[in-house]
Structure prediction request, 384 residues.
Amino acid sequence: LVERMRGYGETIFAEMSRLAAETGSINLGQGFPDTDGPRSLLDAAAEHIRAGVNQYPPGPGRAELRTAVAEDRAARYGLSYDPDGEVYITVGATAGIAASVLALAGPGDEVVLFEPMYDSYAAVISLAGAVRRPVPLRPGADGRFTFDPGELRAAVGPRTRLIIVNTPHNPTGTVLTRAELETVAALCREHDLVAITDEVYEHLVYDGAEHVPLAALPGMRDRTVSVSSVGKTFSVTAWKTGWVTGPRPLVRAVQTVNQFLTFSANGALQLAIAEAIRGEQDWIRAQRDALQAKRDRLSAGLADAGFGVLRPQGTYFVMADVRPLGYTDGVQLARALPVEAGVACVPAQVLYDDVDEGRHLVRFAYCKRDEVLDEAVRRLTGAF
Ligand code: PMP
Ligand code: GLN
Prediction:
């Protein structure tokens, strides 16, 4: 293994899912739903495969999906992208993020991002030979995680090239407000930075919270590469289909890299997804409402079981503080829980450079059937 990838073992999501399987635990670790996406989407994919859509699609993706993505971003956020050159389909958000970072940051460049950070960011920054500058998100008295603008400003220096912004944020569930994003945007404009956004949970926001794409802020469209994907929106995490939208020169840079990583993504799925983006908006809203109720259901159960619950505004994750249970280390609890209680979660600590910031935090996924959540709570209650 090359030097720059030393220290990266198995991902925490794979490790905890394996532990969950070995122990027969309810897996509230890795984030994936236990019900399928809309029937029309599944049927359409099967039909397109049967109808012979089985060879390479164009590298940038099927025009049908590029157009649907562009129309959706225009209708939803007032952001205008040319499907031909400003929208690019990738193998999930994971490939979109990797290609974007590899295209835009090189050896010695610094990348500012918030921690806890989704695990692939750190790894691809390392692959690029770049250096990460994490800024902590910390919970306030209301349990909502946010950043200190002074700490963010201090992280930006002469070598900063990129900033990565994930909202709604995994694992904290924070939905950054327009005002918080304006702080980020002001720094980007002032220091001439490019932003990469990860918006895979864009539809999963609760209590009337609004997802604001950084690209929609003044002066940001032409310096932002926005990444999203279909896995969370339509409960098809295995489909690994995502997209990058941005100004032509940045998308061209991403394409230059990605054509050698994956070349193209699955064509039949792209056609089915294009149809669902147009036809299944009601399903997306119903799913959001269902997940909001599941958030409340699991949060209440975790609180009853003795965790300190940090209420999320988006995603399908909830962070929990293990200290009220008498633990100081979330890794210790996350390793013990499948064995002792038959429930798996993810220790958030591994998503921080500054381990002390997240030592006591674990993440639970609530994108599961109610009876599964209830059984998990039953197992957790009285386990300590
Ligand atoms: N970013 C975040 C914040 C995620 O939680 C995930 C996991 N779905 C991804 C990116 C990867 O998305 P995909 O499965 O589309 O590659
Ligand atoms: N995005 C999912 C999560 O945060 C996991 C994806 C993965 O396993 N790499 O749980």
Notes: The CA atoms of residues 199 and 228 lie 5 Å apart. The first helix runs from residue 12 to 23.
